[in-house]
Amino acid sequence: MRVPVWACGFESHAFRSLQQQSGSMVKRRSSLASNKEFRVRFLVGLLEENEMNSTSHVIDSFAGEYRFLSNFYPSTIFVDGFRYPTVEHAFQAAKTADSAAKQKIATVQSALRAKSLGRQVRLRKDWEAVKVAVMRQFVTLKFESHPDLAEMLLDTGDAKLIEGNSWNDTYWGVCGGRGKNHLGKILMGIRTQLLVTNRETTGSIG
After folding, report:
1. Every domain of the chain and the residues it spans
2. Per-residue pLDDT tens for 41-99?
3. Are 89 and 109 in contact (CB under 8 A)?
4. H or E element that contains 14
């Protein structure tokens, strides 16, 4: 498992920087600062900021060797009793509360067909408010369920992950240089969590 060079020794340096910059606030929260959970959350935030600002390397196509980053990549996950062949299947099924529609989406072979069916369902009322959180949940589940894919995600180092596309998706990815890149941000956040978990397991935090 490769750990990005910039992450080595990052926690102790970053925590000292926080103490220097925050002054009295850190003193008032000294009991929290010694708390392991607080330090983990703090480190995650710093690593995510570093990744978002990283210009060392950009992966802007989830194809070829980076196809595993795509929601269309075969990676079975189980959600609420349904078996989904890909994250795309699960995400499209989550758009509706109709169990029959969920089952139909779960059983189609291709992620493209699942996406097509997802456009035909009756949307749950809160979909727009929850869809990013749902995507994060399912992509996280993908990497938790498939350790080999988690290793591959960690192997992207501190590269900025962008779902570059030609189908004008400027919400989940980037097209023509424009886009919110929500999927790329989710992937980088999960990578950071994996890195922190790995460091915690090896005793780097605490």
Report:
1. 58-188
2. 555 555 555 555 555 699 999 999 999 999 999 999 999 999 999 999 999 999 999 99
3. no
4. helix 10-22
CA distance 188 to 160: 7
Amino acid code (one letter) for 139: V
Of 123, 114, 101, the residue nearest 71 (C-alpha): 114
E strand intervals along 36-156: 58-59, 77-79, 82-84
Report the pLDDT value the prediction gives residue 14, as an integer from 0 to 100.
Answer: 46
Amino acid of residue 54: S
Q: What single string gives the DSSP state of each residue in 126-157?
A: THHHHHHHHHHHHHHHHHHH-HHHHHHHHTTT
Q: Which residue's entry shows tokens 């749902």? A: 134
**Residue 43 in tokens:** 């480190």
Q: Is CATH 1.10.357.40 correct for 58-188?
A: yes
- Token pair 């595993």 is at which residue? 68
Please name the residues in contact with 120: beta carbons below 8 A apart, sequence gap of 6 or more.
none
At residue 10, the 3 state secondary structure works out as helix
In whole angstroms, give the CA distance from residue 183 to residue 135. Answer: 8
